[in-house]
Specification:
This protein is an alpha+beta fold and 223 residues long. It has helices spanning 46-56, 70-73, 76-83, 95-98, 101-107, 179-190, 209-215; strands spanning 2-3, 12-19, 24-31, 36-40, 59-64, 87-88, 127-130, 133-139, 148-152, 157-159, 164-165, 168-169, 198-200, 207-208. The chain has one domain (2-215): Metallo-beta-lactamase, Chain A, CATH 3.60.15.
Length: 223
């Protein structure tokens, strides 16, 4: 687990829990003022996620999903049942993925996963909240048709799922993926947020919009 909440003055704290065989960055995010928390993309290994919640000593109120791929949703139904909290996201365009979680899990040897529907589908312009923190929702298709990004303007921080990575972008060779659509989402939705915006992505280390604008080969024409 990677605890990113060292700054005592920060409005939010976070612990990143790498889960599933894909080492997906499940993020436990909380509001420091209220100690209310959300789990973003519980892709599996629910006991590890529960351990992080206990370590942080926070109260989880929701689960947020950036998109429907198995490594991001494999533990969602189980965690929802254990915590008795609602699931919000992704966009309705990923319903076909959530309807086939069990089948997808079987392809990768992931057992105990369940198909599910969220309590709330998310659309462009929606907001999600945890404690005193509000995040704007951006629909960013391309990696999957229903991928969404969560952005908090006050903290200049985003959770981008598998849309954008440190030095790369989401793969588009899976069903429903489209590279041109993905680059359009990044160009028109994420880059305009500003170079100072930092983000946690679905795999690997995070980055900033500015760093990716300058160095990401998929965004500067080098790839």
């Amino acid at each position: 687990m990677n605890d990113t909440s060292d700054n005592a003055d920060a409005k939010a704290g976070a612990i990143i829990v790498p889960v599933s065989p894909f080492q997906q960055n499940c993020t436990l995010l909380w509001c420091n003022a209220t100690r209310r928390a959300v789990v973003v993309d519980p892709g599996g290994d629910v006991p590890q996620i529960q351990a992080a919640i206990k370590q942080a000593d926070v109260t989880v109120e929701q689960i947020w999903i950036t998109h429907g791929h198995i490594d991001h949703v494999g533990g969602a139904a189980q965690l929802r049942d254990e915590l008795k909290v609602p699931i919000e996201g992704p966009h309705l365009a990923d319903k076909y993925l959530l309807d086939h979680v069990v089948e997808s899990g079987a392809n990768y040897g992931m057992v105990g996963v369940r198909n599910f529907a969220p309590d709330r589908w998310l659309n462009e312009g929606d907001q999600v909240k945890v404690g005193e923190l509000a995040f704007d929702v951006f629909h960013c298709p391309g990696h999957s048709p229903g991928s969404v990004v969560f952005f908090n303007n006050e903290m200049r921080f985003a959770l981008v799922g598998d849309v954008l990575f440190n030095g790369s972008v989401g793969r588009t060779d899976l069903p429903g993926g489209d590279h041109a659509t993905l680059i359009n989402s990044i160009t028109n939705k994420l880059l305009p947020l500003g170079d100072d915006v930092g983000f946690i992505c679905g795999h690997g280390p995070g980055s900033s919009i500015g760093h990716e604008r300058k160095t990401n080969p998929f965004l500067n024409g080098m790839a």
